[in-house]
Amino acid sequence: MSVPTVLQKILARKAEEVAERRARVNLAEVERLARSADAPRGFANALLERAKRKEPAVIAEIKKASPSKGVLREHFVPAEIARSYEAGGAACLSVLTDVDFFQGADAYLKEARAACALPVIRKDFMIDPYQIVEARAIGADCILLIVSALDDVLMAELAATAKSVGLDVLVEVHDGTELERALKTLDTPLVGINNRNLHTFEVSLETTLDLLPEIPRDRLVVTESGILNRADVELMEVSEVYAFLVGEAFMRADDPGLELKRLFFQERGAVVLGADPD
């Protein structure tokens, strides 16, 4: 398993962070908090229902910064952004909680989820079952598993932990080898294809198109990164890809929800507002 240098650095710090979190709050307490959290909102179902109707199933991201681009949004109020996305037609939210590299916070996820009715994925680098239980404790409805950061045994363990606490799983791949591992190891219906090359950081929508034939029809493909204009959306929809994870394009807009509506709905002749019921 070849892990890109930037990702290695993030994962090394993440291992330290998890140890620090465990020292502050033990697993038994996190499990107690997870049991008392609001019921999951059905992240996978929200996407699957939209895709079934051939409507855009948009996971709208709340992200303050990134390692490569720095701060993306100075005026950063997660609750405000969440409400804007919900009004703009998002199916789900993605909230960055990584502190050191993305200037995220658990509090951002809590604030965003409390401000709307949308299901939320905790976007972070998951390497320990503790983080999965913690995700449920802070209110997440889904977690992300990045294949390039995990071996198959750990990936399966994390997915099993997610299932045990009622969380959906979005598995993220970057190439055919990772896709093969993901399909062999996990039964989650959500397969995210990141169009960004982790080694070169170049973005190409061809990554999604190239991998599509290898993905069983009972899995929902979520294309991630590189959706910047209406032509990009239509390219995916022609190939029957209806689920999208978009962050940077929205974060740089004055009104993120309005930008979402413009990109995915305005030129379709109809605007879908709000979240689908679970």
Outline the structure in words.
By secondary structure, the protein is an alpha/beta fold. The protein has one domain: TIM Barrel. The chain contains 12 helices and 10 strands. Strands 1-4-5-6-7-8-9-10 form an 8-stranded parallel β-barrel, surrounded by 6 helices. Strands 2-3 form a two-stranded antiparallel sheet. Helix 7 links the parallel strand 6 (142-146) and strand 7 (168-173). The longest helix is centred in the N-terminal third of the chain and has 20 residues, at 5-24. The chain is globular.
Task: Spell out the blueprint of helices and strands.
Elements lengths: L4 H20 L2 H9 L7 H10 L4 E6 L2 E2 L3 E2 L6 H11 L3 E5 L9 H9 L5 E4 L5 H9 L4 E5 L5 H13 L3 E6 L2 H10 L4 E5 L11 H6 L8 E5 L5 H9 L4 E4 L1 H4 L4 H9 L14
Parallel strand pairs: 1-4, 1-10, 4-5, 5-6, 6-7, 7-8, 8-9, 9-10
Antiparallel strand pairs: 2-3
Pfam families: IGPS
Enzyme class: lyase
Keywords: Amino-acid biosynthesis, Aromatic amino acid biosynthesis, Decarboxylase, Lyase, Tryptophan biosynthesis
